[in-house]
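Example 3.
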Amino acid sequence: MSNSLVYSRLYKWYESNRRVLPWRETEDAYAIWLSEIILQQTRVAQGMDYYLRFIARWPKVEDLAAADEAAVLREWQGLGYYSRARNMHKAAQMIVARGWAPFPTRFEDIRSLPGVGDYTAGAIASFAYNQPFPAMDGNVYRVVARLMDIDEAFDTTAGKKLFHRHIEQLLDTDNPRLFNSSIMEFGALYCTPTLGDNCSSCPLQAHCIAFAHGTAALLPLRKPRPALRNRWFDYHIYIKTQGGNALNSTDEITTLLCKREDPHDIWYHLYEFPCEELSEDPVVTRPRSASQHAKPICTFTHVLSHQRIHARFFIHRVSEFPVISGAFCVAWKELDDFALSRLTLRALDSIYHQ
Ligand code: SF4
């Protein structure tokens, strides 16, 4: 394959089709890093607001390093995968402590930051400094798998090495910034998981081995995913009122909140209503507690990357709060001040709309 022909066709497509994204219009490594962390496992449309809010509130790495972790988690609320926010905050503090501000310039230093893997380090080094490192995100794996007709899963150790060898041969070392931007955008917008008719007028069709072999729609391959772990959470929303009753007439209502404190479990340092985790599905086993005879106000199946949470929310109107380890009393109108788990936000949304 002639790489120079691939480059010229790819760059021509990119110039005509690329989206204008604020983090692609800057060479500020800090801003690019923020965008890359926010966009991990998040769609551009959803991540855009978060990026703009973060960069407005903490315009430099020193600002983010000096922020409270609780404020960072609060700003992150709703994006999920909260370890990304905690790692981002730790990384900002590391950058300042090591004298790397405004941002490290060596690939090895960028790669050493918490929450930064090969992809993110390559993206920052190439987009900010035009250094010749590949940036292999899911879109690039798909394009490379199809261009080279690679029938090895890309998410195994052997597969990653194989793909890495291919992308190193394909990378435009004279224009790494342009190459990485173009191939990522091409995968995001054109060589998509559902190809439709795109291959028939694809600018890279003549260079695409999977197209020639008729295998494009089958690629890329990934290793089988492990079964999701099921968990059953019963949440108890204790309501103490001084006057009004409705949860959206909030003045004198108080409730109990808990902070999740297990660093090895989901939603570390996020807040939620007191939670009782059950060892098995309460719907198919005999009820074990009085609360399980009550009717939940809402139920959700909340899917995370490795777990499926079956949640029920019960409302208890009380004159005195029960004593629950770790629980503390808050005014209902102040719930917004806490970094709540996405599941808790879903429950609140459902309750407000009933
Ligand atoms: S021919 Fe189809 S599979 Fe190959 S690069 Fe183009 S869009 Fe992707």
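The chain has a mean pLDDT of 92. The pocket of iron/sulfur cluster is lined by residues 146-147, 190-191, 195, 198-199, 202, 204-205, 208, 210-211, 216 (CB under 6 Å).
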